[in-house]
Every structure is written in structure tokens, then in C-alpha cells.
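Figure 6 in text form: structure in, sequence out.
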């Protein structure tokens, strides 16, 4: 499912303050968590062996000081549970100096052939997602390492979820917006391309703009998606654009998904 991916498209965003999502998050090395950070979070969660090592339970981890407030650090961690195919996901905000966890969000991921966490699955994005006065969201990207189909017609990459901090709680306001989406226009993987047709891939980069308009107290989000062919030819598709409105709890995406797939047909 495309719930949506990424390239700067400022000229398309009419009435938009600016792009909040124009670049890929820093690499995993720049967001590496220290053993102390993980140990303190593990203690808070009551989980032993909370390390990213051969004997530890942590599969993927990212930590980044929040530019909005250097006194806070954002942590995103995926770790093994008693069920082999289920990974727990924790997003936390801690005090940068002491490491004390002050806000927490928990979820889980059920792994299958198409979804599997790996060491670099999680990354943190701290672009200026200013949704309201004094409310800046941050994002966590999750990338899967699942095997998927042997002869796919297309696929998706990392997904991005926007979070806001509310005291001791952290809640998602936009969930699983795909940052990578693509399909074969012709040809395909060598093992499947029996006719030896030229392999052409259509990519669908997505950007998010923060609008001046608001709904229920939060800024509208402008989702823009382009069509790009990897053979240097110009796509005949016109760019896709959709405005997401906050409903008081989150930014619903079902109607956008329907419109997107109609545009893809």
C-alpha cells in the first residue's frame, strides 16, 4: 500500500510555507545510539540485554539531539520480543544530559516475507514540521529488508511517520507515509525478463509541504508526487497533489490513497 516518498518540489506547492521533507535523513552512523543511551532506555522499559550486539535484543536504533531543543534527544529503537516474528518499536524523547526518558511511544511490527527490520531500518528526521505555534513534529523513517516477491511488478521503500510530543506521551499524527515507490514500465529483473525487453522503471518521489491553511488547529499538509522514468525520458503523467487535513487526532490518508491509485492507473 502506498501511504507515500521524496524529492523537493517547491514550485508545485501553491500557498505553502515551505517543504518540511526535502532530503533523506542522515545515515545510520550519524544517528548511532550510545550503549549508555540504550541501557537507560532498556531500564525504563524493563527489558534486559538492551544492546545492539550479538547477544543483545536491539535490532535497529537511531538517536538524534532535537535541533528544536538541544536539551532533548529523540530515540527510535526496534527490538526482539518473545515472538520471533514480532519486533517491538519504541520512540522516546529523553533529557540529553541525563538520559532520563520523559516521553514514550510503543508499537510493534509483525515481520513476514515483505517486512523485516535490519540494523539500519530506523532513522530520525527533524525537519521543520511546524504544525502549530509551539508544536513541531518530528519523523521516524522505517525501512524494511524483506525479501518480497522474486519477480515483482514494483514496490515501496521506507515509510515516514510524524510524531508530536504531549508531555509524557508521544503520538503519531501521520502514519506510514511511503518515501519510496516504484514500478516496472517494461522489462524487469533479469531472471523474470524472458523477452529481454528494455527495463524501464517509473519512480514516484514524494514531498510534504506545510500549508498556511489550518484544520482543527494544525497546518494542512500538502502531499506532492511526481512521476520520473529512469531512462531519461519525460513522463507523461502530470504531478499528483493532495491536501491532508488534521481531524483533531491525526491526518487521515484513505481518501488520498484512493486518489493516488486512480492517478497511477
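Output sequence:
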Amino acid at each position: 500500500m502506498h501511504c507515500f516518498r521524496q524529492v523537493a518540489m517547491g514550485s508545485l506547492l501553491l500557498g505553502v510555507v515551505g517543504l518540511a521533507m526535502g532530503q533523506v535523513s542522515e545515515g545510520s552512523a550519524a544517528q548511532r545510539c550510545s550503549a549508555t543511551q540504550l541501557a537507560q532506555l532498556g531500564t525504563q522499559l524493563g527489558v534486559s540485554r538492551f544492546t545492539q550486539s550479538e547477544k543483545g535484543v536491539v535490532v535497529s536504533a537511531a538517536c538524534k539531539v532535537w535541533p528544536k531543543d538541544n536539551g532533548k534527544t529523540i530515540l527510535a529503537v526496534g527490538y526482539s520480543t518473545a515472538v520471533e516474528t514480532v519486533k517491538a518499536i519504541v520512540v522516546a524523547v529523553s533529557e540529553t544530559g541525563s538520559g532520563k526518558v520523559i516521553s514514550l511511544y510503543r508499537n510493534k511490527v509483525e515481520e513476514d516475507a515483505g517486512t523485516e527490520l535490519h540494523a539500519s531500518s530506523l532513522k530520525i528526521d527533524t525537519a521543520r514540521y511546524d504544525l502549530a505555534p509551539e508544536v513541531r513534529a518530528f519523523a521516524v523513517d522505517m525501512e524494511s529488508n524483506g525479501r518480497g516477491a522474486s519477480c515483482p511488478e514494483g514496490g515501496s521503500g521506507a515509510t515516514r511517520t510524524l510524531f508530536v510530543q504531549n508531555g509524557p506521551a508521544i503520538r503519531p499524527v501521520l502514519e506510514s507515509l511511503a518515501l519510496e515507490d516504484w514500478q516496472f514500465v517494461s522489462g524487469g529483473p533479469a531472471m523474470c525478463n524472458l523477452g529481454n525487453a528494455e527495463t524501464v522503471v517509473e519512480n514516484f518521489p514524494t514531498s510534504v509541504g506545510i500549508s498556511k491553511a489550518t484544520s482543527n488547529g494544525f497546518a494542512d499538509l500538502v502531499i506532492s508526487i511526481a512521476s520520473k522514468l529512469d531512462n531519461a525520458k519525460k513522463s507523461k503523467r502530470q504531478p499528483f497533489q493532495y491536501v491532508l487535513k488534521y481531524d483533531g487526532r491525526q491526518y487521515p490518508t484513505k481518501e488520498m490513497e484512493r486518489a493516488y491509485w486512480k492517478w497511477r492507473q
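Caption detail: The chain has one domain: 10-264.
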